[in-house]
Amino acid sequence: MWWQYFVKGAIVMTPGTPPPCSFFSFFNLQVVNGIEIYSMKIDSKVTSRFARNVITSRAVNRGNMHKEVFFDVELPKTAFITNFSMTIDGVTYPGNIKEKEAAKQEYEKAVSKGQTAGLVKASGRKTEKFTVSVNIAAASKVTFELTYEELLKRQFGKYEMFIKVKPKQLVKDFEIDVSIFEPQGITELEAEGTFITNDLQNVIKKTFSDKKGHISFKPTLDQQRTCANCSQSLLDGDFTVKYDVKRTTPDNLQIVNGYFVHFFAPTNLPQLPKNIIFVIDISGSMSGREIEQTREALLKILDDIRDDDFLNFILFGSDVHTWKEKLIRATPENLDEARKFVRGIDTEGMTNLYGGIMKGIEMLNAAHEENVVPKRSASIIIMLTDGQPNVGISDTQDIRAHVKKATEGKYPLYNLGFGYGVDYGFLEKMALENKGLARRIYPDSDSALQLQGFYDEVSNPMLMDVELHYPENEISGLTKNSFKHFYDGSEIVVAGRFVDINQNRLTVDVKGEGANDALSFTTQQDAEQTAKAFQEQEYIFGDYIERLWAYLTIEQLLEKRTAATGEEKENLTAEVLDLSLKYKFVTPLTSMVVTKPEDYDNQAGIADKMTEGIDIFSFALSKKPNVPLMYPKRKALFDGDPHFIISVPQKEDAICFNINEKPGDVLSLINDPVTGITVNGELIGDKRANSDTKTQNTYFGKLGIANKHLNLKVTVTSEKITIQNGNEKTAFTWLDSVTLQQEGLTLIINREKNLVLSMGGGASFVIVLHQVWKKHPLQQDFLGLYTLKSHKLSEQTHGLLGQFFHPIDFTILEIHPGSDPKKPDATMIIKNKELTVTRGWQKDYRKDPKHGVDIPCWFVHNNGAGLIDGVHTDYIVSSLF
Known about the structure:
Strand order of the largest sheet: 44-45-46-47-48-35-36-37-52-51-50-49
GO molecular function, one term: serine-type endopeptidase inhibitor activity
Organism: Anser cygnoides (Swan goose)
Keywords: Glycoprotein, Protease inhibitor, Proteoglycan, Secreted, Serine protease inhibitor, Signal
Largest sheet: 12 strands, mixed
Radius of gyration: 29 Å
Pfam families: ITI_HC_C (PF06668), VIT (PF08487), VWA (PF00092)
Structural class: alpha+beta
Distance between the termini: 63 Å
Strand content: 35-45%
Protein name: Inter-alpha-trypsin inhibitor heavy chain H3
């Protein structure tokens, strides 16, 4: 009898009662209880920029009983898994890629018979994690083999392959082996590692000649040690391979077995002048390190602006401010003035994103219409925001429609999302609809370098309006062949297939607009020329150009699908799914099912592909007090029948719990003695008179938010909002539409929906009004609270919600069926404690106050016992203030 285990972008499954377990990964390894990992190897073959990587790890159980081993791999986010297998005592169990829903049904069927599951998670800026487990018998051996493919991108004049190295132990046979074949010839090849010492530098063996390159890294056990007699490993960090190819012509065309790939990267072109508008979010949430790093990055960017460029700055908080009324030339005098302006940028108000971006577009349109900027110049808008629109037009679909209509595709829009509080999906869709892209800027000490690094990618436009034309009657399945800009150091890649698979010649017309004149030429290639270049067959893996075409097609279709709706989205989904299944790629629409025999504990697992545009701000609603959720920028919330949701960003996952107390009790949610901010919430019950508090639903009916340093108090109920500033009181109802700014306070009421509150430039709060039918037999109107920019609060912040504004981590083990077949139980290791938790769902009502959005989380029972500090009754206080 056979069982499956699911891999959700990765896999982690264990059945019923847990055996002793051991964790290891190809680059993330812990070994305990007699499990010996004796071999780790990554074998990479790169042919014409397309890389196939095979990761192999081998382990043996030296103990005298069954043990569970976990295999962890961190993969580039741009890669697609194509194969996975486990070999146990000489028998191989392969993975099969299926449509996600079909895989899910198989998984649920397996779970009902005693299996468990785990998820793939984003584990870093460049990587996502794949995990799988297996229970192996005493003296048994297991081999894990994972294959993934990716097209290496060219940036700053080099192709880069990134490998995460983190074995966390000494490994007898550890090796990285990279073979590169480029028919154009290789001009440079380098390998470096963040963990490489002077001694380890000599272990990296690098050779290249003409078309071939090779890198080997195979340290001995002694070379891996941190010191002569240490058992700790030096191997902990990033291993990067970079190279470039010879370019005797502007492009290179290759034809193999009815498919072609066309690489276009001209050199020695004069740079186009650029017209660049920086649209910068200066809302209160950007205060502190964010605005400091933004100023730092902009000052460095100004040092790189050329004197034939034009520029301007637009700042948006509650209002929109401009440096100049129109684009101006970057003369030395103007750049000095720009530096003074940038040094003076400070934060204020809320987030009028619509006003800021539309002002930038209008300014660029006017500059072209009035001939302020050169005709042969590249126009770019770069927008940086760390929040979500809440002033002016705040509906993201409306903003996207206005922006698309205003730009008319004339110039690209690049959206930079600072931190995790942004609606990244919105930024990505708007950028893609306007020939740009979105990028997340991670909140860290190097955020300024991230900002400057992105600017460097787009700071040197060499061509605009690049078109690569192929004979329509000869080619089908053509990938994107029209590009607004070509940037120095990058590369344009186009692929397609021939209508006649036997056709062996192709003619391409290339056109583009340069700084001085138009670029236009015709290139030809035939299959025999390509075959001659590929005589070294040992470097070729299968039909690599066909797979490169499939990879690039799927990648671009997924990009189009991001912003599509309705029938168009359905058609794109069907096309991506068909290609993913045909070429066996784990994409966001497919999952990998791995099967193991009953002898190996009946485990089931699914692997899925992660996507970047996850809305990482969630929150819960259920049968008792509802409170917070916390995300990378340390955002948190509560909503509905009091539930708390805590986001753990490095795991792309969340923990939730309930607080069950009686109506009238006041709970301490946030208490920061440094900033003086406190948030308390009073519970209300449903309409059942004298009902048992154990069965009665409770909600937050009143919130008190105060800043004792400013002598400010704000009381919010489902009927009114009262502000007390010293002895002065001001009151509003939810029927009002208000924007109020006074010293230390910004308040915006969106009629009968929500209010946004900021005190003293610190954390901001969004309070959602939940209105129910007045004649409802049980429910009453209630409030939900979302905390934005909680990192603005001090490290001394506490409370039911505030204690989770500090970093927290957890591990999930022993997933197994629970009392509800759709909600498996598991063991959570957190704060050095083992807790029994249940997989469930809570609601985020920010965007849809009526229905909410389901957010998955691990539910901690018994009022958060073991998770929260102390016991839940410690958080009951006497009054709102």
